[in-house]
Amino acid sequence: MTLPQLSPELIGGGLAFFFTIALLSYVIGDNVIYRLALHLFVGVAAGYVGLVAIYKVITPYLIVPMTSGDTTLAALAAVPLLLFIFLILKLSPRTSALGNIGIAYMVGVGTAVAVGGAIIGTLIPQIMMTWRASEPFPNAIANQIVIALGAVTTLLYFQYWLRVETTAGAERAAVLAVLASVGKGFIVTTLGAIYAGMILSGIAVFSERVMAMSSWIQGLIP
User: Fold this and answer.
1) Average pLDDT along the chain, 222 residues, taken 10 residues at a time
2) Are 126 and 151 in contact (CB under 8 A)?
3) CB-based contact 153:183 (threshold 8 Å)
4) Any residues with CB less than 8 A from the CB of 219 and at least 6 apart, and which?
5) What is the pLDDT of residues 113-152, one digit of tens each?
6) Residue 191: partners with Cβ closer than 8 Å, 6 or more residues away
7) CA 69 to CA 88: how far, in whole Å?
8) Residue ranges of the domains in the chain?
9) Residues 117, 131 contacting (CB under 8 angstroms)
10) Cα dihedral sign for 115, 118, 121, 123?
11) End-to-end CA distance of the chain
12) Cα distances (Å, whole numbers) of residue 50 to 53, 54, 138, 139
């Protein structure tokens, strides 16, 4: 019996087989093989992120403008560099106050991007699609009513407008309590559907890994 020649496909299949078994070994408990595979994944991911940051962000947006000889580009590139220096100053208690400038900028920009993305990319398209007929009457009207009812009652579930505050605690108004209960039902249904989808995705990934390992083992047999 002759051993198969080493090839990129054989080596890649062997590594995939090892990592699959190592990660699945967590089912029987935490062990050295699982931690080794996990550390390798984290290390490779950190190295990849570092390379992407260097070649896709730092080099084109900082080094190239600073060395281009263009004063405008150099000044624009100096702004994020200055903010980065402010963040570094947070490491020292004496200069940590200056670091708040960089943090405030990041929080402000992040909040603006998140709010703008939520309004333009999520809220407005959902409102428009809610009332857009996509099926023949009367199914379209029924679907729109269900979508609108789910959106409104889900938002009301997170509102706490109270009728009165008694010694027993805060109490919702009767109408809001009913609508909040309906919204809670929509939330539970949605989370259940998402969880079921995650389980089905996990089963699909597990089946694909089993088939891949089976094919790799069959390739070892002459």
Assistant:
1) 60 78 82 90 93 91 86 86 87 84 89 87 74 57 78 81 58 78 91 92 83 76 68
2) yes
3) yes
4) 4, 9, 10, 13
5) 988 888 888 777 777 776 665 555 556 677 777 877 888 8
6) none
7) 27
8) 1-67, 82-130, 137-222
9) no
10) negative
11) 8
12) 5, 6, 55, 51
For residue 132, give both structure tokens: 């857009």
Task: For residue 109, give Cα distances in angstroms to 16, 102, 106, 114, 217.
Answer: 41, 11, 5, 8, 51
Place of tokens 């007929």: 133
Q: Are 173 and 161 in contact (CB under 8 A)?
A: yes
Q: How many CB atoms lie within 10 A of CB 179?
A: 20
Cα–Cα distance, 117 to 132 (Å, whole number) = 21
Q: Which pLDDT value is given to residue 14?
A: 77
- Within 49-185, strands assigned E span 162-166, 169-172
Let me know: does 151 contact 128? Beta carbons within 8 Å: no
Question: What's the CA gap between 70 and 68, in Å, rounded?
Answer: 5
73: number of Cβ within 10 Å: 15
**What three-state secondary structure class fits 14?**
helix
Secondary structure E strands in the chain: 162-166, 169-172
Sign, CA torsion 111/114/117/118: negative
Using the Cα atoms of residue 179, residue 182, residue 188 and residue 192 in order, give the sign of their dihedral.
negative
Which pTM does this prediction carry?
A: 0.56
